[in-house]
Amino acid sequence: MHRFSPKKPVRSFRDLEVYQATLACSVIVAKDVYPKLEKLACPFAEAMTDTARGIPLSLATGHSLRFGDHATAILILERAMAGCNKMAVYLEHAKGIYGPKLDASLLDDLVGRYEAARVKIFRLGKAWQKFTPPRPRA
Known about the structure:
There is one protein chain. This protein is mainly alpha-helical. It has a single domain, classed as 23S rRNA-intervening sequence (de novo design (two linked rop proteins), Up-down Bundle), CATH 1.20.1440. It is 72% helix and 0% strand. It has 4 helices and no strands. Helix 1 runs antiparallel to helix 2, helix 1 (17-39) runs antiparallel to helix 4 (104-129) and helix 2 (45-65) runs antiparallel to helix 3 (70-98). It is elongated and about 60 Å long.
């Protein structure tokens, strides 16, 4: 039997599991993937790291706007989901081009993490859509 335990309350964007997961992925990309791609003169290495860094940045920004500018916050979450999809494409593309020169298991792991993060961001967006957007002040 599974015991119910409430999740830790979210006090800031740093408490969001999906922020922590995508930040960890962006660090791995910057430390372990980018340097190898740079040595291989990969034309999209910098775009990949920018995209990886942009996902947790989007989550932080969206979290800040979720009550003040509800529609924009949801749109920013959608951009974060698109970033996860982009990262999967970048990583699979790198694996396809550079194959044995890269750690394929690391790339596959990152693709899986980004796919899981995309689903969590989608659920976060659905939860945020339940909030009633504030009425404009007169």
